[in-house]
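Example 452, ligand N~2~-(3-carboxypropanoyl)-L-arginine.
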Amino acid sequence: MDSRVRGNDEHGLVTIMLTEINFDGIIGPSHNYAALSFGNLASTAHAGATSYPRAAALQWLAKMRTLLDLGLPQGFLLPPERPATGWLRALGFSGDDADAVAMAAYGADPRLFASAMSASSMWTANAATVSPAPDTTDGRCHLTTANLSRMPHRSLEAAATEAQLRVAFAHPSFAVHAAVPAAFGDEGAANHMRLCPAHDAPGVEVFVYGEDGGTFPARQSRRASEAVARRHGVDALFVQQSPEAIAAGAFHNDVVAVANSHVLFAHEQVFAGRDAFYAALQLRLPEVVVVEVPAAAVSLADAVASYLFNSQLVTLPGTGSDQGVAVPSRSMALILPREAASNIAVSRYLDTLLAGNGPIRAVHYIDVRESMQNGGGPACLRLRVVADRAAVDPRFLLDERKADKLAQIIEAHWPASIDSADLGRRELWQQCRAARWHLTQALDLSVLRNAA
Ligand code: SUG
């Protein structure tokens, strides 16, 4: 998975090790179920349910530990401040302090206020689109902040996300871009896939967009995808998400397809013009392997309900590429939500998959139930960045000691539960702010304190 590439800096030759690092979004203390995402069936189904932010954040942490135990490097991003006072002020609510602004907004428009309380930044697959250095014309790793302009509660993430990416990826080997204009919806890596011989080798970047006109909104516009590809300087393929997939609740492409290295794992009904897309892919990357799941084995409805494809497809360490040379026995594992195990069609399919001789050799189930109930599975919670670890700000990298520290902070400061009436309580707002203060303090990231 790592490579050793000789680079040059002002001190002479340096060794650069490119590795895929997953950056997961810490589940913020205001995590709740306000049914803010039309077209996301889980979000709608859990409208008004009681949420458990402390349990949610601990589930997140257990996910991190599972990946660390598998030998995979892990990073994280912090939640922005909630309530989002700056956004509420921009909407014309005023007051002497943050609580007064929140009180004015909640009193006037509780539904709007719920957006200012959303913890949706946890789904970092929507934080940005990332093009690793081997793919780009200038040899830097490019990140474009997603504008998330199709959903009001998500659109307010972009400013804080950009500020955070600029800290985490300040090294000159990265280029962090602001969001593309809001006229063109961009939801980041959730609609972007990269296929490559190995993580550290040049790859084909696939941008998946939707077309408006269906029952549910198409969140990724083709023009936004094209803008991102132009900015990053990558050789890209653009493919349309099938209207049936969006209508079945696949509001992002990563609900029905996932790629890793040279393997694409996708449902049969995901792409409009699927044959032409596969042919173009094959032309650019002859070793590509498409593991396609037939609708006869798993219906789109079962795929969306189980989040089979919203798994992380990972190359296990010790396999993949060795010192830049691809080796034949590339062993991959799927990190699945445990909901996938309780779906009969999906679990039958997985048995067949593992019994076969394909590239996916193992499955691991994890419990991210609190996030799943808002439509966010394992893959939604992570942003993949292929980078040299040494170039990433170490404050955003996780090890067991830091995980223990995060556990203590979450246990001490995250609310145990939130129901819809709690959203209007001053005590909750204060607890959310205090929790974030303790987090930034413990991680030495007070620089992010005002990023809301
Ligand atoms: O944008 N849910 C998120 C889930 C995002 C999942 N991400 C990926 N597929 N990559 C969304 O729909 C629900 C919030 C609420 O209803 O309170 C929400 O925003």
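Summary: Residues 53-69 form the longest helix (17 residues).
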